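REVIEWER CHECKLIST
Item 1: Sequence provided? yes
Item 2: Single chain? yes
Item 3: Sequence as submitted:
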Amino acid sequence: MDQVFEFVANHPLLLATFVVVLALFIRNEMQRGGRSVSAQQLVDMVNRENAIVLDVRDKKEFDTGHIVDAINIPFSALDSRVDELKKHQDRPIIITCKMGQHSGSAGTLLRKRGFENVSRLTGGVSEWRNQSLPVVKA
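Item 4: Structure as written out by the authors:
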């Protein structure tokens, strides 16, 4: 531990550069796929703004349980099937996946295709289930 303090004391410019790069990386990752919304915010957006829930998990995972009225387009097929969402382009879209790992990339893809009101569910369907919220099984 003493070596860490010694390194920091001897290399303040290097440490400052690292902190700035880390902060910029975190900011970029947070903005990349749209803002993050909690499960409660998702419910509010669906009820008040008629938001669409886009589940980007594989069909097999989707069938084990998904959010009510969610549209399933697997992440691997999203690029080729994004036109299916064009009729919902004026509505908010909330992207969800298993644990939140693909929703940022899916949000980036949708933004590049002209969708402006894109959000992602924090923690994905796993967090939704952890909060004992309802799921539909196919």
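Item 5: Key structural point noted by reviewer: The chain has a mean pLDDT of 91.
Item 6: Recommendation: ____
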